[in-house]
């Protein structure tokens, strides 16, 4: 799968995804540390990537856009360290690969996750 990691996502998580064969771009690596959310959405859409983010604004952005892309995985976890985030992300990818590939907005929480089909209506 192809991912675009927002600034809050650890490079440790990015490395774990890469070790599993995923194509991951981190905004920091591309010198885009100040990219605004609409730019992140446009970049992910044009590159066919799933946005990985802790930024709650992405829920509103996707709801208002009424589009089926880009796909988003939003983390709403108390502990945001890679030790907790990475295994939860890998679980969601494994269990929801088909939904993510078809266009979805996933909210990952401490003890579960929710998947919404895009576009959000």
Gyration radius from CA atoms, angstroms: 13 Å
Largest sheet: 6 strands, mixed
The assigned structural class equals alpha/beta
Percent helix: 40-55%
Distance between the termini: 25 Å
Which sequence of strands runs across the widest sheet?
2-1-3-4-5-6
List the helices and strands and how they pair.
Elements: E1 2-5, H1 11-19, E2 23-26, H2 37-47, E3 50-53, H3 57-65, E4 71-76, H4 82-102, E5 104-109, E6 112-117
Parallel strand pairs: 1-2, 1-3, 3-4, 4-5
Antiparallel strand pairs: 5-6
Helix pairs in contact: 1-4
General description of the model:
This protein is of the alpha/beta class and 121 residues long. The protein has one domain (2-117). It contains four helices and six strands; from the N terminus they run βαβαβαβαββ. It has helices at residues 11-19, 37-47, 57-65, 82-102, and strands at residues 2-5, 23-26, 50-53, 71-76, 104-109, 112-117. Strands 2-1-3-4-5-6 form a six-stranded mixed sheet, with helices on both faces. The chain is globular and about 35 Å long. The two termini are 25 Å apart.
Task: Tag the structure with descriptive keywords.
121 residues; alpha/beta; 6-stranded mixed β-sheet; 4 helices; 6 strands; globular
What's the short story on this structure?
By secondary structure, this protein is α/β, with parallel strands linked by helices.
């Amino acid at each position: 799968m192809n991912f675009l990691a927002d600034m809050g996502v650890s490079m440790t998580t990015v490395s774990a995804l890469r070790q599993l064969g995923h194509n991951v771009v981190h905004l920091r690596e591309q010198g885009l540390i100040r990219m605004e959310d609409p730019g992140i959405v446009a970049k992910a859409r044009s590159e066919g990537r799933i946005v990985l983010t802790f930024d709650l604004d992405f829920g509103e952005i996707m709801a208002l856009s009424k589009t089926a892309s880009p796909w988003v995985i939003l983390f709403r976890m108390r502990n945001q360290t890679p030790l907790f985030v990475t295994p939860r992300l890998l679980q969601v990818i494994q269990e929801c690969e088909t939904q993510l590939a078809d266009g979805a907005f996933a909210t990952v929480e401490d003890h579960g996750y929710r998947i919404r089909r895009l576009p959000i209506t």
